[in-house]
Amino acid sequence: MLGLVIARTGLLRFESRIMPTASPNVVESIAKAVGFSTVSRDSNLRLIEWAQAELERIGARCRLTYDSERRKANLFASLGPDEPGGVVLSGHTDVVPVDGQKWDTDPFRAEVAGDRIYGRGTSDMKGFVATVLALAPEFVANGLRQPLHLALSYDEEIGCIGVRGLLADLKQAGIHPSSVIVGEPTSMRVVIGHKGKHSFRCKVRGLACHSAYAPQGVNAVEAAAEIIAYLKSMARRFRDQGPYDALFDISHTTVHTGVIHGGTALNIVPKECSFDFEFRHLPGDRPEALFEEVKRFAEGTLLPEMQRVDPNSGFEWEVLSLMPGLDVSTDTPTARLALGLTDARDVGKVSYGTEASLFQEAGMPAVVCGPGSIEQAHKPNEYVSLEQIAQCEAFLRRLMQRMCG
Fold this sequence. Notes:
By secondary structure, the chain is α+β, with helices and mostly antiparallel strands. The chain is about 35% helix and about 25% strand. It contains 9 helices and 20 strands. A 6-stranded mixed β-sheet has the order 3-4-8-5-9-19. A hairpin with a 2-residue loop joins strand 6 (about 110-115) and strand 7. The two termini are about 40 Å apart.
């Protein structure tokens, strides 16, 4: 017969069942992390200061790297011997907004109900970050024989911005860990690959006039629409012709237009239009070639007709984000390490991007493995199951056995 105990703290309502589940101190740590509202548009410094204090209390050597306004910071903390190598456990501290979402609970006050912990970031990815912080004292108490590093970054959700400064700082300091495990939600399955993401903004310059004399103007919205239609034709081509990689949940490169702005009134030929588009490409694809194909269509097919009406019309192209893909062999020491810490023996690849590819690009072999499901991320009533957190604890304790005397 299952027992049910309900206790209250200032942070959460905690329901504990007699079954394999997350440790109370881990749940408490997750509640504290969720309580910091670290939406990407806001500062993450309160969370970073809390994490730094917790880690310095157990002897961590901490490095901070800030954004240009010093409103946000990365934290890189090292435990154990001060020597080369070691393992990095990496996670981002920012979360996506809750604006316009209907939540049944306060998104920034963790609540345990049944076998789930609800709150913004519980799955993506404060569940992992907080579990690592809660277990860090055990790593130290058991005697680390090699360095354990914790990397907490800002602004991952808007293009993995913060981790780039962290990596630059590590390079300058000559710190070069041997393996990186990024704890994005994978249901504790080891992920050895993810797609790259390249996103762009196109601004179209046209010529305004009265719509009754539309041929005398250059319609920026219509030019944008033709490019967007071409992007859609590329998406269909990848869907129908590949190339494919069956390990991905979406097995082909995808093309997507997400934002468009243009026009002022129906009776005015629009002078300006802008739209944002992205490629989420298989690691083997060349995103530069995909972008050049779109640009070639716009400037080779549309531009001559536009400039016959107005020589000043044209296009401006802006890079919004560049994220390389990740592709790791299961034969690498990092992949073998992660597989040895899990109950699963198969690996996967995911369509979303992570900072793992940036660590990999910097010469630090990386894989992705963390609690929770990406299916719950970014949604109202985001949650992570207590079972997933328990699996994450088991994963980290196995790592502890390998790294400690």
